[in-house]
Structures are given as C-alpha cells and as structure tokens.
C-alpha cells in the first residue's frame, strides 16, 4: 500500500499538461467567437481560464498581438474596445 501511495504522489506532482500561453488563448477565443468581440467579453472568458489574469496584463497582451499584425483593436467608447482577428499565427 505504501508503494501505491507513493506512486499516486508522483503522478500528482508530475503534471505533463502545461497552461496554454495567453496570446494563444486570446486567438482561440476570438476564433470561437467568429473573429470579433468586445474586450470586456473576451477578458471575462479568459478570466475563467486564468484566475490570476489582471486587466492590465490582458491589455499588454492585446498590444503585443496588435503589433504583430494578428489582431486589430478599435475604440468604440471611452472604455470599450472591439477586438478583431486579422489572421491566425
């Protein structure tokens, strides 16, 4: 029984799955939503997967993707942005 407990402990500690990078999760979510969505809706969807995601980090990642030409962010209102997927990586 000790070997089984030890084996279970090793399995729990050695998790082969890694967390999806944020930039890839943003692109996946945009594809799932038809290529366009509002920033607050996208943030809420990503927040379910990344509990520790701050809005500031989210905006930084959007800026990186926009600079790479993968997405386009346009301002609809003062605090509301539309995010559009231009191409997948």
What is the structure about, briefly put?
The chain is α+β, with helices and mostly antiparallel strands. The protein contains four helices and three strands.
Class of secondary structure makeup: alpha+beta
How many structural domains in the coordinates?
Answer: 1
Which strand order do you get reading across the main beta sheet? 1-3-2
Structure annotation, total helices:
4
Radius of gyration (Å): 18 Å
What is the CATH class?
Mainly Alpha
Shape: globular
> The CATH topology, please?
Arc Repressor Mutant, subunit A
Distance between the termini: 49 Å
Return residue spans where pLDDT drops below 50 for at least 5 consecutive residues.
5-15
What does this structure look like?
The protein is of the alpha+beta class and 89 residues long. The chain has a single domain, classed as Winged helix-like DNA-binding domain superfamily/Winged helix DNA-binding domain (Arc Repressor Mutant, subunit A, Orthogonal Bundle), CATH 1.10.10. The chain contains 4 helices and 3 strands, in the order ααβααββ. The radius of gyration is 18 Å and the shape is globular.
Main attributes?
89 residues; alpha+beta; Arc Repressor Mutant, subunit A; 4 helices
Task: Outline the fold blueprint.
Elements: H1 2-13, H2 22-32, E1 36-38, H3 39-49, H4 55-67, E2 71-77, E3 80-85
